[in-house]
Amino acid sequence: MLQTSTPAPGPIQGDLTTTKAPFIEQSLERGELFIHQPYEQYSDSNQETWRRLYAALEPKWRRFAHPRFLDGLDRLALNPERIPRLEEINQFLEPLSAFQSKPVSGYVPSYLFFDCLRRREFPTTITIRDGEALDYLPEPDIFHDLAGHVPMHTDRRFSDILVRFGEVARSASRKVQAVDDHSVQLRTMESIIKAMARFFWYTVEFGLMKHPEKDGLCVYGSGLLSSSDEIQHSLQSDQVQRYPFQLEWVVNQYFEIDHFQALLFYVDSFDHLFEQVDRLERWVLEGKLDNVNPGEPLVNQADLDSFLQAPIDS
Ligand SMILES: [Fe+2]
Question: How do the domains of the chain map onto residue ranges?
């Protein structure tokens, strides 16, 4: 006799919700990091999440974001009504900075991430957060990556800063791969990756900058630009400490990702930030980052392997 059973509740077919997308699970099972954007799989609810996020952030961007970010929104012709297609975004980016958004299935080991930047490729998440919890971000999503990061990539100077990050990673990999003692190699590598992650966090992800046209600060960090609550909090709350960027502090300062940041750093300008990335590379080469303060972020084996096994002659 035939047995019938009620199918277990599972993700809706064609759902691209973060942590629930069958397409992503299948890509990960196949070991595919670089993927395509299966646009037809966005559900109505995914599109609605984009609309709600955009509507919540747009007025705040006008008040708090760096003017270059606002220019970027226009130059990319981001649509408030629907999730962007990466091919369209890339067509707009090509003549501006030659950056490309490259779809990925999930976490990118740190050397690979920085090396993508060196090649003017930005690893981009294609899933979108659950509409039930708009401010909860268990991992990056397409709103964070595309609306938070990519408008800044339209600025040639800013995109050059990202490329410099990639060059710093390559210098770090070369330096540490030349170390004979494996335990020293591991310890040094972990320390430098930690320092680079902290620098990236306090600038590209959560950076503030002196406003180029008026007194005060504005936001260029994508973690702030993709959070409807934290963007205003970062500039106006008296619970946030805002200090001029100091390299020796930043590389030794741990961070936590699961709450509003109580400590932020501001730079004077994009040129100032570029100089700091140059200094970061000098500090790598001079050994000043070989023993930074322990603590967050954790560096996993995949991050270490990605640096220690990177082809260093490319
Ligand atoms: Fe990010």
Answer: 22-308
Phi first, then psi: give them for residue 128, nearest 5 degrees.
Answer: -125, 145
Q: What is the mean pLDDT of each run of 10 residues along the chain (314 residues)?
A: 44 78 96 97 96 97 98 95 97 96 96 98 96 78 96 97 98 97 97 98 98 97 94 97 98 91 97 98 98 95 97 74
CATH architecture of 22-308: Orthogonal Bundle (1.10)
The candidate with the shortest Cα–Cα distance to 149, out of 129, 124, 116, 167, is: 124
Helices (H), 143-221: 156-177, 182-200
Q: What is the pTM of this model?
A: 0.93
Cα–ligand 1 centroid distance for 16 (angstroms): 19
* The dihedral formed by the CA atoms of 280, 282, 287 and 292, expressed in degrees to the nearest 10: -10
Contact 297, 291 (CB under 8 A): no
The sign one gets for the Cα dihedral 165, 170, 176, 179 is negative
- Give the Å distance between the CA of 223 and the centre of ligand 1: 6
What separation in Å is there between the alpha carbon of 182 and the centre of ligand 1? 32
Rounded Cα distance between 75 and 78, Å, is 8
Residue 297: closest CA among 163, 179, 206, 171: 206
Contact 147, 128 (CB under 8 A): no
Ion ligand 1: residues, CB < 5 A? 222
